[in-house]
Amino acid sequence: MIAVDNLSFAYPDGDFRLTVPALTLEPGENVAVVGPSGTGKTTLLNLLAGIVVPDSGTVRLGDQTISAMGDSARRATRAATIGFVFQDFALLEYLSARENILFPYRIAAGARLDAAARARADDLAAACGLSGKLDRRPGALSQGEQQRVALCRALVMKPRLVLADEATGNLDPANKTAILDLLFARTAEEGATLLAVTHDHDLLPRFDRVIDFSTFRQSEGASV
Amino acid sequence: MNALFLAFAYLRFHWARSVVLVLVAALMLAVPVITQVLLNGSQAALTERADRTPLVLGNRGSQLDLAMNALYFSDDRAQPVTLAASEAIWDTGLALPIPLNTAFETNGARIVGTGIEYFDFRDLTLSEGRQIALLGEAVLGADVAARLGLGAGDTVVSSPQNLFDLDGVYPLELNIVGVLAATGTADDEAVFVDIKTSWVIAGIGHGHDGVLSADADAEDIVAASSIVEFNRITEDNIDSFHFHGDPAEYPVSAVLLVPNDDRAATILRGRYLDADNPVQLILPRDVIGELVDRIFRIKALLDAVTLIIGVAAFAAVGLAIFLSYRLRAREMQTAFKIGARRGMILRLLMAETVILLCCAGVIAFAATLVVQGNGQSIVAWLLAT
Fold it and tell me: Are residues B269 and B175 part of one domain?
């Protein structure tokens, strides 16, 4: 379970302050975050991931209070329990699709790139329809395929929380649906919580819950 | 290992940029070392050969040109003296004169016309064939033989002096009868002939071919000149070869003198002190010593320039790496968000720099080894050109 309590954060040089009185994400839950630009959606993701530390309040990931951890511990926790999917895929152009998926193993503290990890990467890629394309570099893949690789990378270390920041924003409608299907299916399979920032209101009915940042109103169901 | 893997993958993907960086760094590492190796080799080669050459006689003019030509057969030649100057030394009984005529070349190698005593003086031995015995015969220096792929039994033609002067001296085909053992000196880069053969190339001596008539019964024989590509001295025509003019006037580029003793050397030096004498006698050791001093003064300047260029080049390489870091900010940000451990990004950049510098180091080391291994030949070639 991810729990946020009395969270308050402001960037040092900004006049915007994000305040979240309370937010709870249950395991396996799919939650969408919507709202105009500049209302703090991405900041919330960064706070949940421990990329930035709140000025006050707490962020708990299971029994760990990530907001109270030091930098190294937050990095390690992030690597072990949180998966990121970015709008621009953020793949490394010089690595093959397989090596991109395994990238977290190469940079994260305590991660061990062994045969089991490689097998998991291959299994994830197969489940995402990337078999036969794992030796290609991102430049040789379509945008949909690139986002599938990014999705595999986010899931490869079995995260408890997947944070998707406009993950379908750069995709055409067909790929958008396909990636979202995969995102739901894979997170459900892994038992991970999905928190997805999106501007696409057509996708909202598919989420369990929607957080509207324009009013910071949590609503059950489709409409915001 | 992971940092090395990622760094290597990045450098391989951007291979053109990596190659440029490696080559720049390799050059910066290798140039000062190679310069030092060659300078040390040059100094050793210059001074050793000069030390082993007591005196050189030649036309008054640049002492350096005379020494370089007499010792290293360089292209810079003073005006020749005459054979009379050499004979004059012989007549004193104070020294053995070894005349050299270095006016011609073949296939980029200097043809050195001299006497058989030169080979004893320089301790030159044959690795193949025999010594020159007849007009038109040649023995090759080891490097020339290797470069041209020639040996005893082959021939080589002297280079024409003027391609457009049909009335001029024809090149002479030289019969190679031997190859000298390598010495790591200028002798390896030379083609040796008897000095009379060099005078034949100069057109001072020549032979005559027989004139045949197509009609044996004809009373009048009509002969027409024909253009030949080169002259050839054969068993059939060698006896017809003869020289014109006063032998005392035949040209000699320089004369190596081997004095009987120190006293003889001193006496000879005293006889050629007159500045009005068109012939001078030099001590190669002093002339070359001055040159070496000058080279090492220039080297100090070169070191300073190399240092400045090195700093600039490494600054450029550093800037390239810094710009690469800036260009990869998104990648670094992704790594950070994914949970890259502290210092991982720094390790990644360090790994890239280490790989680049290691590759550059290997290339620089290999280049230095190659230069060091061929140092004598390179120095001999540099000194001859």
Answer: yes
Q: Which of the residues A106, A135, A155 would you substitute to probe the B interface, choosing the one with the greatest number of B C-beta atoms within 10 Å?
A: A106
Q: What's the gap in Å between the CA of A82 and the closest CA on chain B?
A: 8
Does A84 contact B13 at a Cβ distance shorter than 8 Å? no
Domain count across chain B: 2
Residues of B in contact with A160 (CB under 8 A): none
Indicate whether B7 and B104 sit together in one domain: no
Hey, is the C-beta of B332 within 8 angstroms of any chain A C-beta?
A: no
Of the candidates A42, A80, A52, which has an alpha carbon nearest to the alpha carbon of residue A64?
A80
Residue in B337, B341, B342 nearest the CB of A49: B337
Burial of A88 (0-12, 13-18, 19+ CB in 10 A): middle
pLDDT digits (tens, 9 = 90+) for B321-362: 788 778 888 888 888 888 888 788 788 888 988 999 999 999
Same-domain check for residues B252 and B298: no
Contact A103 B338 (CB under 8 A): yes
| Residue B339 near chain A (CB below 8 Å) | yes
Return d(Cα B83, Cα A101) in angstroms, integer.
86
Has residue B212 been placed in a domain? Answer: yes
Q: What is the ipTM of this complex?
A: 0.84
For residue B354, the enclosing domain spans 2-44+293-384
Q: Report which secondary-structure segment, H or E, holds B160.
A: none
Do B88 and B142 belong to one domain? yes
Domains, chain A, in order of start with CATH, read 2-220 (3.40.50.300)
pTM of the full structure = 0.63
Which of B258, B282, B306 is the C-terminal boundary of a domain? B282
- Of B222, B251, B282, the domain-final residue: B282
Q: How many Cβ atoms sit within 10 Å of the Cβ of residue B166?
A: 8
CB contacts < 8 A, A to B, total 68
CA-CA-CA-CA torsion for B10, B14, B18, B20, nearest 10 degrees? -170
Residue from the list A78, A80, A90 with its beta carbon closest to the beta carbon of B330: A90
Round to whole Å and give the CA distance between B178 and B132. Answer: 8
pLDDT tens digit sequence for A86-118: 888 889 999 999 999 999 999 887 778 899 999
A80 vs B contacts (CB less than 8 Å): 339
